[in-house]
Structure formats: structure tokens, C-alpha cells
Amino acid sequence: MMTNLLLAGGLMAGASVAARPAPAATPPPVPGVPPVLTVKTARALGAGSTVTVRAVVLNGAEMGNIRFVQDTEAGLALYAQPAKLPGFGELQAGDSIQVTGQLKLYNGLLEMDPVASVHKLAGGVPLRAIQVPVADAAAAFSEANESRLLEIKGVKHLLSPVGTPVTTLAGNANYLLDGLPGTLVRVMAASTGPNGLIDAAPPAGETFDVRGVLSQYAPGGTGGYQLLPRLASDLVRGGGLPRLIEEPVPVDVSATGFTVVYSTLNAGDTRVRYGLDAKQLKEIRLDPTPTTRHSLTLSNLIPGTTYYVEVSSRNAAGTETAAPVPFITGNGKRARPGTKN
Q: How distant is the alpha carbon of residue 329 from its chain centre?
């Protein structure tokens, strides 16, 4: 005879039911602390919203009191007085930050102002630019790309708005890419000094690329997009590759070594491979510091011996390598008075 009878609820009397763990409770939001959003989501909330985003800074003090940031989907402008917001003035390109503030529209540009807090999370983050042929540049000057880093490829000239060729750049001045309508380029007054844009000369006699942040100045609220290059290095020659422009030569030659020097068009690291056979260069030396004037000393070499030396340089655009060339160490002998060694 069955001792356990089905109950109305479908369970059998006397049957044990294992207790299941209660689902983890979702922690309640902290009052007054907005969640971290993507830049695209934050932008969609519009002016008047207080938001927190994590993104990478695109520029430093060469643009004055404004910093542009972007993530993988969108960009945003931040505006603050450095004296009133600790850490803001020190932000530079490649800094990863978390920032909280209120969104507002300033002549069409969506920006965070006031910025309530900013925290640097890391530095040296690679910047990703949207690459656009110059023929398509006007179409790329759009709301979807506002506050993002663009790289306009294959530019031949920077012209004034009336079509005059430009030989040197001035602050708070406007230019056009190849004279094309809708491709306004503006140089910021704060981009000064040896690395700044002011008084820099655009490349002549060759095509080049122009990097910059797409901003907007439209009192009426629409149009008015303008590309803001940051430093003279944003006028990119040679496709951004290091491009060797001076062959390697040995200096300070001694019996046991020499210094290899060479130059590149654009900054990159310094790489040297060398050996006794041009086809078997086993020894490698590297200096990771970006530079256009490269110098690296080889030591503990054999006196009076021919070494084959291959130089190269690498940056974010790629690697440029020269063919191996022979260098000879000194013989280590001292010259007698009145004779030549």
C-alpha cells in the first residue's frame, strides 16, 4: 500500500525538497553616483544629463582648457578650468580616464561642463584614428564623428578659405583640405612651442595626412564641423612610417666598437642588427625611445673586423628597414710620432 499520497499541489507527502540557494540580490545603486556608461550611451542622454564615462584622452594643453575623449564607438568634449579641477590640466593624449559631469551644448558641440571629477586610470594607451581619404573628408565631417580622432589621407595642400596656398600656419586661423568645401581645419592658439602648429610649415611637394579631432562650432546648432589638429606631428608625412632619410654611418669608432647613427622622417624606435655575415645578423640592440635622430652604440667587438649592420625603426604605422652595410672597427694600434696609423 502506498504510504505517500499525492497532495493537491503535486508534491508527495513526506517527500523532502532540497532547499535552493536564494538568487544573489542585485546591489542597489549608490545614491548620487551615476553608472559608468559608454560614450555613445552618454551622448544619447543629451544636454542636462549627469553622466560618468571611461574613455581615452585625445589631446593635452595644446588645445587650452578643452580635452576630447573617445572610446571605441564615440567621442565627447570635456571643458574645465584646470585651476578649479585638480588633475585636469595634466591630462594628455593616451591617458585612460573615468570622468563624471553634466552634459551641455555649446554652439552645437556636446560637451561635459561642468566636470565634477576626473580620475586617471592609465597612461600611454594607443590612439585609434578613423582613416578617411581626402576625397571623402566632407562626408566624414558629421555628428557621428564629433569629438573623435580622424586621419585624412592623401592631402596635397592646405589652402586659405579664399584659395591662397599656405606656407606657415597661424593660431585661430581656418584652412581647407585641398581647398574642398566642407573640410574646415582650424589651428588652436594654444598649439605653440617647438612642437606646436603655429608657425609650422605644411609639407610641400608631397602628399601628406592630417590628423585631428573633429569639433563643431555652429551657433545655429547644425553644421560648422571643423578638424582640430593638435601638434605639428599631426601633419603626417610618408604615411606615418619612420622613412629613413639618412643612411646609417659609424661615429666614435674604436678598436672594440662604434656608434651607429641615422635619421628618419617620422619618429620611431631605434633598432640595430649586426654580425660578421650579412646573411646571419644574430646580434640585436633596441632603444624604444621614439625619435627621428637615431643613435646606438655597439661595444665588445673584435678589433680590425668588418661587421654588417642593419638599422630599422618601428612606430604605430609600421617598420622601415635599411639593407645591411659594412662597418669596420679600429685596429687598436697606436700611431708612432710623425707617422699615420
A: 40
27-36, 161-170, 205-214, 273-282 — which is least confidently predicted? Answer: 27-36
Residue 27: pLDDT above 80?
Answer: no
Contacts with 315 (C-beta within 8 Å, 6 or more apart), sequence order:
240, 241, 242, 266, 267, 268, 269, 290
Sketch the domain layout of the chain as residue ranges. 36-122, 130-239, 241-328
d(CA 221, CA 106): 9
C-alpha pair distances (Å), 326 with each of 245, 308, 312: 19, 4, 15
DSSP 219: T
Is residue 150 predicted with pLDDT exceeding 90? yes
Please state, as a whole number, how many other Cβ atoms lie within 10 Å of the Cβ of residue 13. 9
CA distance 44 to 33: 19
pLDDT confidence of residue 32: 57
Q: How far is CA 233 from the centre of its chain?
A: 11
CATH class of the domain whose range is 130-239:
mainly beta
Of the chain, the percentage scoring pLDDT greater than 90 comes to: 79
List the beta bridge partners of residue 100. 52, 117
C-alpha to C-alpha distance for 196 and 234, rounded to whole angstroms: 10
Q: In the CATH scheme, what architecture does the domain 36-122 have?
A: Beta Barrel (2.40)
**Which CATH class name applies to 241-328?**
mainly beta
Mean pLDDT for 298-322 is 94
pLDDT at 28: 55
**CA dist., res. 331 & res. 341, Å (int):** 9
> Other C-beta atoms within 10 Å of 102: how many?
15
Q: Do 130-239 and 36-122 have the same topology in CATH?
A: yes
* Of 159 and 338, the one with more pLDDT: 159
100-132: pLDDT as tens digits: 999 999 999 999 999 999 999 999 998 999 999
Short-list 319, 316, 321, 314, CA closest to 268: 314
Query: CA–CA separation, 43 vs 135, rounded Å?
Result: 29
pLDDT at 31: 59
- Tell me the β-bridge partners of 117: 100
**DSSP type of residue 71:** -
